[in-house]
C-alpha cells in the first residue's frame, strides 16, 4: 500500500503539488489495497456480453478522510502492458463508468457501474482495457495554500467477453499455451480467444520479472520475450485466472 500524508510546506502561497502514484498489488489478495486506506473487492473485472445491465465495482474507504474519486477508461499500451493515457486520448473507449466523479465519504462504500456503449468490439475474441481510479484527498479550508497532496492511481483490467466465450475458463486453458525458442527469443503461442496473463514464467533457473509478466499474450496471437543466450531447460508457467489467483503449474520441454 502506498501512502503519503498531507504535509505542510514552509513556503508561502505555493500551488499544490500532486504526486501521482500507481498502486500495485499482489494478485492473490481477495480485496485490493488500492492505497491510503482505499480498498477494492476484485483484482480484475470480467464483463460478459450477457451482462446487459453492466457490471459493478465496489470501492471501500476505510479511513477517517474524505476523497474525490475519479474513474475513467484507458487503453492498454502494448509495449509495456500498462495503462496508456496517450492512446486513450485518441481512441474511443467502449465503456462508460458512472459516476465518473464522486465524493467518497469516510468509512463508506461507493458502487461504480460499468456499461457498454456503441463503440464496437470483437464478437469472436476477448478485448481488454483498464479502468483507472484516481483517489484525491479532499482539502480542508486551512490547507488550500501550503500543502502536498497525494493522488493514488489504481488501474484494473476490464476483460470483455462476447457471448460465445465462457465467463470462467482460464484455469482450463493453461495447458493450451505453447512455447518455441529461436536463439535468444522465447515465442509464446496463444491459440485461445482469451487474453492470457502469466503469474509466473521461467526457463530452467531463469525467472521472468514483472516487466515481462505484465505483457499479456493476445488472443490467437503470440508474444516474444528476450532471454539470455545461455539459459536452457524446461519452461514452467502459471497463468492468472479470473479472480487473480495462480493456476496450476504447467511444464513444457523446448
From TrEMBL:
It is found in: Periplasm. Keywords: Chaperone, Fimbrium biogenesis, Periplasm, Signal. One of its GO terms (biological process) is cell wall organization. The keyword Plastid does not apply. Pfam families: PapD_C, PapD_N. One of its GO terms (cellular component) is outer membrane-bounded periplasmic space. The keyword Chaperone applies. InterPro entries: Ig-like_fold, PapD-like_sf, Periplasmic_pilus_chap, Pili_assmbl_chap_C_dom_sf, Pili_assmbl_chaperone_bac, Pili_assmbl_chaperone_C, Pili_assmbl_chaperone_N. Residues 188-244 form the Pili assembly chaperone C-terminal domain. It comes from the Bacteria. Residues 37-165 form the Pili assembly chaperone N-terminal domain. Belongs to the periplasmic pilus chaperone family. This is Fimbrial chaperone protein. It comes from Izhakiella australiensis.
Amino acid at each position: 500500500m502506498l501512502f503519503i500524508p498531507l504535509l505542510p510546506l514552509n513556503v508561502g502561497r505555493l500551488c499544490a503539488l500532486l504526486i501521482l502514484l500507481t498502486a500495485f498489488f499482489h494478485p492473490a489478495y481477495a480485496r485490493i489495497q488500492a492505497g491510503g486506506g482505499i480498498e477494492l473487492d476484485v483484482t480484475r473485472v470480467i464483463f460478459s456480453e450477457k451482462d446487459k445491465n453492466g457490471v459493478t465495482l465496489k470501492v471501500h474507504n476505510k479511513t477517517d478522510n474524505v476523497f474525490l474519486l475519479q474513474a475513467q477508461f484507458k487503453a492498454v499500451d502494448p509495449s509495456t502492458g500498462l495503462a496508456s493515457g496517450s492512446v486513450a486520448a485518441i481512441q474511443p473507449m467502449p465503456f462508460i463508468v458512472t459516476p465518473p466523479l464522486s465524493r467518497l465519504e469516510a468509512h463508506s462504500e461507493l458502487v461504480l457501474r460499468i456499461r457498454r456503449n456503441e463503440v464496437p468490439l470483437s464478437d469472436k475474441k476477448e478485448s481488454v482495457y483498464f479502468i483507472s481510479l484516481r483517489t484525491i484527498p479532499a482539502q480542508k479550508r486551512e490547507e488550500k495554500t501550503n500543502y502536498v497532496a497525494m493522488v493514488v492511481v489504481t488501474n484494473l483490467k476490464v476483460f470483455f467477453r462476447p457471448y460465445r466465450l465462457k465467463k470462467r475458463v482460464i484455469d482450463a486453458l493453461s495447458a493450451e499455451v505453447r512455447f518455441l525458442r529461436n536463439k535468444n527469443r522465447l515465442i509464446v503461442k496463444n491459440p485461445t480467444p482469451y487474453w492470457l496473463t502469466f503469474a509466473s514464467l521461467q526457463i530452467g533457473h531463469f525467472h521472468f520479472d514483472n516487466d515481462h509478466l505484465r505483457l499479456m499474450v493476445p488472443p490467437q496471437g503470440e508474444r516474444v520475450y528476450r532471454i539470455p543466450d545461455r539459459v536452457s531447460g524446461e519452461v514452467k508457467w502459471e497463468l492468472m485466472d479470473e479472480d487473480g489467483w495462480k493456476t496450476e503449474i504447467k511444464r513444457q520441454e523446448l
